[in-house]
Amino acid sequence: MIIQLEDKIKPNDRNNVIEVIEALGYKVTEVKTQRCNYLIGIGKREFDIRKLGNQAGILDIHRVSDDYKLVSKKWKVKNTVIDLGDEVYIGNGELAVMTGPCSIEGEEQIKKTIDHLVENGIKIMRGGVYKPRSSPYSFRGLGIDGLKLWYEYARSKGIKIVTEVMQVSQIEPMLPYTDIFQVGARNTQNFNLLDELGKVDKAVMIKRGISGTIDELLHSAEYVFSAGNEKLILCERGIRTYEKASRNTLDLNAVPILKEKTHLPIVVDPSHGIGIRNHVAPMALAGIMAGADGIIYETHEKPEEAYSDGQQTLDFKESAALNKKMKEAYQLVSNW
Ligand code: PEP
Ligand code: MN
């Protein structure tokens, strides 16, 4: 059960509501986000909802049978739109495109990538400054100094930044320079990290775990929401299966299933999803056909020289061509 409280509910009224819910045998969790005050009631007993409805200070009551509550579509009719400022949105009925290198490598690369984004009308740049790498000897990112440098150029051209945060201690230093905190596939169930991201007023994009189920992804999002942050985006980036012909198996089934289960915007990452440059474009288009609100993919001026993930990275020409096709595909789906 989700109870939306009035903004200016009197403390006394709030305590009364909590008392009534507890008396019904329900466990109560209080949630305060940027948008609303909620009480989440967890319990099984059937009861007459009118017992609650006439309490002072209640805006709305919703029964939600799903295990996750706040991210469920069962209570929120309108889909969530993420407002990044300067008229950049995710989930507002226009395709959200996020592109850039796997890793931020230096000033020249940042400038060239931003020029590419500007030329193609793309508003959100991706890139890692903290890189989760399978080998400790691989390039692990430029860290906070790289992010500051990137932010300086990105802001001067009106570009928003999506970048991975790997641990709790990085959140605070990254905060002023980050528009979307990306939670990587290896961290989807790092519940301490999710709790802390619930305390910031910045968007958070959670990637599906390497072997994670759709349900687990929704529960990870519930962690962030219930800790106070409802600016959430979910990302399908492929899962590990027995198939070895591709890096991962991009589970496009997840897109319509997630759209049915949650009001949060859904983004598809075909780069990590298939891991093969020549096949990134068709999988991006397939993601749009499946109903994605956005696509995130890797691009680099010279993919063969990229510090990481070059094998799945598009060059700028390929990226420009894909961007044009994606707009057409999105238009087509929107008209259906
Ligand atoms: C990335 O976006 O570069 C990345 C490491 O993604 P994932 O967490 O999906 O592997
Ligand atoms: Mn990558």
Please report the number of helical segments: 11
CATH second-level architecture of the largest domain: Alpha-Beta Barrel
Distance between the termini: 34 Å
Bound molecules: phosphoenolpyruvate, manganese (II) ion
Q: Tell me how many strands there are.
A: 14
Which fold name is given in CATH as the topology of the largest domain?
Answer: TIM Barrel
CATH first level of the largest domain: Alpha Beta
Overall average pLDDT: 97
Q: Indicate the structural class.
A: alpha/beta
Q: What is the succession of H and E elements?
A: EHEEHEEEEHEHEHEHEHEHEHHEH
Helix fraction, binned, reads 25-40%
Describe the structure.
Helix 3 packs parallel to helix 4 (143-156) and helix 10 runs parallel beside helix 11 (316-335). This protein folds into two domains: 2-62, Alpha-Beta Plaits (2-Layer Sandwich); 82-335, Aldolase class I (TIM Barrel, Alpha-Beta Barrel), CATH 3.20.20. By secondary structure, the chain is of the alpha/beta class. The strands form three sheets. It has an eight-stranded parallel β-barrel, surrounded by five helices. It has a four-stranded antiparallel beta sheet with strand order 2-3-1-4, covered by helices on one side. Strands 5-6 form a two-stranded antiparallel ribbon. The protein contains eleven helices and 14 strands. 35% of the residues lie in helices and 18% in strands. The structure holds phosphoenolpyruvate (PEP) and manganese (II) ion.
Give the topology, please:
Blueprint: E1 2-5, H1 11-23, E2 27-32, E3 37-42, H2 50-53, E4 58-62, E5 82-83, E6 89-90, E7 96-100, H3 107-119, E8 124-126, H4 143-156, E9 160-164, H5 168-174, E10 180-183, H6 191-197, E11 203-207, H7 214-226, E12 232-236, H8 254-261, E13 266-268, H9 270-274, H10 277-290, E14 294-298, H11 316-335
Parallel strand pairs: 7-8, 7-14, 8-9, 9-10, 10-11, 11-12, 12-13, 13-14
Antiparallel strand pairs: 1-3, 1-4, 2-3, 5-6
Helix pairs in contact: 3-4, 6-7, 10-11
Bound molecules: phosphoenolpyruvate and manganese (II) ion.
